Amino acid sequence: MKMNLKTKYVKFASSKDGYSRALVELGNRSEKIIVLSADLKNLTGCADFAEEFPERFIQVGSGEQNMAGLASGISMQGYIPFISSFATLSPGKNWDQIRSSICFPKLNVKIISSNAGLSAGHDGAIYQALEDIAIARVLPNMTVIAPADAIETEKAIILSAQIDGPVYIRFSSNKSQVFTKDSNFEINKANILNKGRDVAIIGCGPILYEALLSAKELLRKYKISAEVINCHTIKPLDIKTICSSAKKTGAVVCIEEHQVYGGLGSAISELLSERCNVPMGFIGMPDSFGESGESEELMKKYGITKEKIISSVLDVIKKK
């Protein structure tokens, strides 16, 4: 679905702002949109909605479990609640309530979380969500999305309201490169950002911009043609696009700002082991917690970089 957004974006923008704009847009479209915050409205992008529609904004306080329970009840009355917090707290802290009170009855609740990945650098390891994709995608009935930038976040939020069921959307707290302006966005439909024939680089989130830079360098230095795929919807996967690219290129490298276990890379390896068994490489958090520091420094320390992507591509191509 192609969406003509009114917003004009600069080269760098925060996905939180994309979320904020989408909430206000949805609030104007329908009185069924309700937003709940766990005492983090300014930090997660809910403040503009709260100001515009105070009668449809609920400040729960520091209680993500209670927020999920309230949202389930609100959903049962025919409304569409969006619950907002940091990703380590939701779905981290309230996973049981999301599982039992939202996913089991398949209620129409949207779980929107910021500070995903290493973007919460100075908050330290406790608030760096690196396991949230794994615990969200394992839940039946849950759709899981990791937008690449502010534009894609806005599109994902708006389209999530059209899905009748639980949706989890995660995004970082930092400003990042905006590079999906000309891309169509459809939930469960991966986007090929760069066509290639030798290897498929499949990722989600802001790190995809590094994949595009890697593809340019791979072609220039090594004459390797890399296909770059934005797999923003992690559950359900776009089986057709992923399998077609894997069969064409014969090698895959998965990249994500998440643990290498249980996230996008795991989801794709599960798929390809059944449909198209090709050599794979994995870029992500190497079975470790993070630490306090600038997010760029942490990305470099833990190997979630352009250089690491290129190295992984060179290694996996040797296994073809």
Q: In sequence order, what are the helices and strands, one letter per element?
A: EHEHHEHEHEHEHEEEEHEEHEHEHH
The oligomeric state of the chains shown is: single chain
Question: Unreliable stretches, pLDDT < 50, 5 or more residues?
Answer: none
* CATH fold description of the largest domain: Rossmann fold
Indicate the CATH class of the largest domain.
Answer: Alpha Beta
Number of domains: 2
Gyration radius, rounded: 19 Å
Q: State the fourth-level CATH superfamily of the largest domain.
A: Thiamin diphosphate (ThDP)-binding fold, Pyr/PP domains
Distance between the termini: 36 Å
* Discrete helix count: 12
- The overall pLDDT, averaged over residues, is 95
Task: Give the beta-strand count.
Answer: 14
Principal-axis shape: globular
- The helix content, as a percent range, equals 25-40%
Classify the beta-strand content into a percent band: 15-25%
The computed structural class is alpha/beta
Q: Report the CATH architecture of the largest domain.
A: 3-Layer(aba) Sandwich
